[in-house]
Design goal:
alpha/beta, 2-enoyl-CoA Hydratase, Chain A, domain 1, 3 domains, eight-stranded mixed β-sheet, elongated
Length: 447
């Protein structure tokens, strides 16, 4: 009895496997939302990373179709072109469902798909590119011309009217009875259907599937936490802010003894800047290591080596090269802009450096940053009293005073500050004033 039961179970198992091989499970339908982060995000490199992963998973699971639900104001030109190529060259059928709006870069995302559906109150258009770094306000004729050629070629490949989509990019395009010269074209759903810009109007996901005539399990993908973070960190507004915080924090830390809040903020901002590129798949950690090497060489030049020479220029070169390596991968339209953008960020660094160098030394908050720590409660009077004995005494600067540093007085090291001037190591200084536990010195003029 037991043997017959075992043989029956084994036969049932093989019959199940044969039926699964002959009648495979239904192929899934991938639903991929391409939407702006509320009140913040747009089409950027974090979204590009998400689209790439979605298509890879769809191909791996032999999906019937990938439907991109589009609702965006637009975004970066370079990221848009990268996503356009991913969708257009995908080895799986792609469909766009414009759920509200596909403006600016969103037009390219929709047009990259083989079919386009739109909600009744949806619209598509206004795709004029903005030239310069991070899509500045004034359109660059060179960029407009290149993007117009891209969208016309894409429209022709998808069997749609190239002139219609050219009018969404270029103000100089005139379309009789539809668009005058000097304006940009934006089509509502009914007019887009009438002009052949879309294939149909649908209310929701269910109606899109009915119009496509597909059935099967729907797999809805959402961005992972790392992709969402990458979208935020690669946003055009956040990138300059992170670099400004990193440059300012690192400079303040170099100029003051010890390690405190400026250093933490600077290092954290630096890691977020390079980490966002890494999570978006735009760069490895090599540019970060090169950036840290540049910071180290600059610190060595400022704190140890007198004057400014080969070490300092090498550090600046390492910083510039690291920024270029990161930005180069994001400039797919005009790669030369990566070098210009790297110079722009280095100019930010130079501006921060000069501001902190010339305007903050005399600021009370800046002078407090030059102190290693505050005297314990109850000890301040005693410390102040002992420090007053140093008034008028001379010492030797053991480090460069920028304006904070270390001076040796009667064989003992003291943390001191100047009134803003820089003093080279080895120079003679005199204690000019005592403010609490702060020692203020000035350079002794040599005969």
């Amino acid at each position: 009895m037991g043997r017959k039961w075992f043989l029956g179970l084994l036969a049932s198992f093989f019959l199940f496997m044969m039926s699964y091989a002959v009648f495979p499970a239904e192929r899934p339908i991938f639903w991929v939302p391409l939407k702006d982060i509320p009140d913040f995000g747009a089409v950027e490199w974090g979204l590009a990373s998400f689209v790439r992963r979605a298509l890879e998973e769809a191909v791996a699971q032999n999906a019937q179709v990938v439907i991109f639900e589009i609702d965006t104001f637009g975004g970066r030109v370079d990221a848009m072109l990268f996503i356009k190529d991913l969708i257009f060259r995908a080895p799986v059928e792609t469909v766009a469902f414009v759920n509200s709006k596909a403006w600016s870069a969103g037009v390219f995302l929709a047009l990259s798909c083989e079919k386009i559906f739109m909600v009744p109150d949806g619209s598509m258009g206004a795709s004029e590119p903005r030239g310069g770094m991070d899509d500045a306000e004034k359109p660059d004729p060179k960029v407009v011309s290149a993007i117009r050629a891209q969208i016309e070629a894409l429209a022709k490949e998808r069997g749609r009217d190239p002139l219609l989509f050219a009018g969404m990019v270029d103000r100089d395009v005139e379309i009789p009875n539809l668009k005058e010269k000097g304006s940009l074209l934006t089509l509502p759903a009914y007019l887009a259907l009438e002009r052949g810009a879309i294939d149909g109007i649908a209310q929701d996901q269910k109606e899109v599937l009915v119009r496509l005539g597909v059935q099967g399990p729907v797999v809805t993908l959402t961005p992972s936490w790392s992709e969402t973070l990458a979208r935020i960190l690669t946003h055009p507004v956040i990138v300059p802010l992170l670099l400004l915080l990193s440059f300012g924090g690192i400079f303040l830390e170099i100029m003051t003894p010890g390690f405190g809040v400026p250093g933490v903020v600077g290092v954290a901002s630096l890691l977020l800047f390079f980490g966002g590129r890494y999570m978006a798949g735009l760069a490895g950690w090599e540019p970060l290591l090169l950036f840290l090497l540049g910071v180290f060489l600059l610190a060595l030049e400022l704190l140890v080596i007198p004057g400014f020479g080969v070490t300092g220029f090498t550090g600046i070169g390492a910083l510039l090269l690291s920024l270029y390596l990161v930005l180069r991968t994001t400039r797919v339209l005009f790669p030369g802009e990566a070098f210009r953008e790297a110079l722009f960020y280095m100019a930010i660094f130079g501006g921060v450096f000069l501001f902190l160098l010339f305007f903050l030394p005399s600021n009370p908050i800046w002078q407090k940053l030059g102190l290693r720590e505050k005297s314990p409660v109850g000890e301040e009077d005693r410390v102040t009293s002992s420090l007053r004995m140093l008034l008028g005494k001379k010492g030797i600067a053991k480090t460069i005073l920028r304006p904070a540093g270390i001076v040796e007085i009667e064989g003992r090291p003291y943390d001191v500050v100047t009134r803003g001037e820089f003093v080279e190591a080895g120079k003679i200084v005199v204690v000019d004033e005592i403010q609490g536990n702060k020692i203020i010195v000035r350079l002794v003029e040599e005969d």
